[in-house]
From TrEMBL:
Segments crossing the lipid bilayer: none
This protein's name: Heparan sulfate 2-O-sulfotransferase pipe
GO molecular function list: sulfotransferase activity
Alphabetized InterPro entries for the sequence: Heparan_SO4_2-O-STrfase (IPR007734), P-loop_NTPase (IPR027417), Sulfotransferase (IPR005331)
Biased composition annotated in UniProt, kind: Basic residues: 269-282
Pfam families attached to this UniProt entry: Sulfotransfer_2
Gene3D superfamilies in alphabetical order: P-loop containing nucleotide triphosphate hydrolases (3.40.50.300)
Assigned protein family: Belongs to the sulfotransferase 3 family.
Keyword Electron transport: no
Compartments, as annotated in UniProt: Golgi apparatus membrane
Gene (UniProt): HaOG208939
Lineage: superkingdom: Eukaryota
GO cellular component term, pick one: Golgi membrane
Length: 282
């Protein structure tokens, strides 16, 4: 987000982000989907918009499709990071400043470490296949962000959510980067979405010390490989989706070097070619 913010000044496009919400909602009701599409479409192009939200089909709602990009992360490392992110003291300081009447969480919940949570069989860390629990800020299912708002997308680690997510990535996303391979991610963004990401790789490494400090959680202890493997056993389809995105990213980079390689062109990329002043949704 910070990189895109700086690129907005460099490449002269609008930078917009979702407002801080009392309750983060990832899956939207139909009326809220229309409101999101209307909001994004209202920004003078070229413009970018960032939000934690499931894939929203703008065309189906009667609005022009933006260029979609996203970044995935190793699903187990991601769920560990989220576990400690929502327990970090500064997270609740920011929340209380925005919403002073919010109650503080139970101290026992704040002090509960991830390894104990997994090994004790705590409900929060079971990750049961087919489970549809959607707690506040539930970020366990990376596929959910790509699958969409439909009920079929909600069961954890499901085959249908996986297949839908893969299809949406292939058909709708110009680039889905990989956090663990930032060089490849930024190179693909530069080459496939240059209007917004020109110079991203150079800027990232010039400002690496700044970017590496953002969202760093000093309250996140190490987690043993043994515990990670226990969790991985329940994340089989989430891991498959992550590997699918990695493979697609590498295929896109190979296609840049070898013109004989064909990579499906997302509809958002066709939209980019048709409109000189597009909108980007991240």
């Amino acid at each position: 987000m910070e990189l895109l913010h700086r690129l907005a000044y460099k490449n002269q496009f609008g930078f917009h982000r979702d407002a801080v919400q009392r309750v983060e909602t990832i899956r939207l009701a139909p009326a809220d989907q229309v409101a999101l599409a209307s909001l994004v479409s209202s920004y003078d192009p070229p413009a970018s918009y960032i939000k934690h939200v499931c894939y929203t089909n703008f065309t189906r709602l009667g609005f022009p499709s933006p260029i979609y990009v996203n970044v995935v992360r190793d699903p187990v490392e991601r769920v560990i990071s989220w576990y400690y992110y929502v327990r970090a003291p500064w997270y609740y300081v920011e929340r209380k400043r925005a919403f002073p009447d919010l109650p503080l969480p139970d101290p026992a919940w704040l002090k509960k470490d991830f390894e104990t949570c997994v090994l004790s069989g705590d409900r929060e860390c079971r990750y049961v296949e087919g489970q549809t629990h959607e707690g506040i800020g539930d970020h366990r299912r990376q596929t959910l962000f790509f699958c969409g708002h439909e009920p079929q997308c909600t069961p954890f680690n499901s085959v249908e959510a996986l297949q839908r997510a893969k299809r949406v990535v292939e058909e709708q996303y110009a680039v889905v980067g990989v956090l663990e391979d930032m060089n490849s991610t930024l190179l693909a963004l530069e080459r496939y979405v240059p209007r917004f990401f020109q110079g991203a790789l150079k800027l990232y490494w010039e400002e690496m010390n700044t970017f590496s400090r953002i969202n760093r959680n000093a309250f996140k202890p190490p987690v043993s490989e043994e515990v990670k493997q226990i969790v991985r056993a329940n994340f089989t389809r989430e891991i498959e989706f992550y590997e699918f995105c990695k493979q697609r990213l590498h295929m896109q980079l190979r296609a840049l070097r070898d013109p004989t390689i064909t990579v499906p062109t997302p509809r958002s990329s066709r939209t980019r070619r048709a409109h000189k002043t597009p909108r980007l949704l991240v």
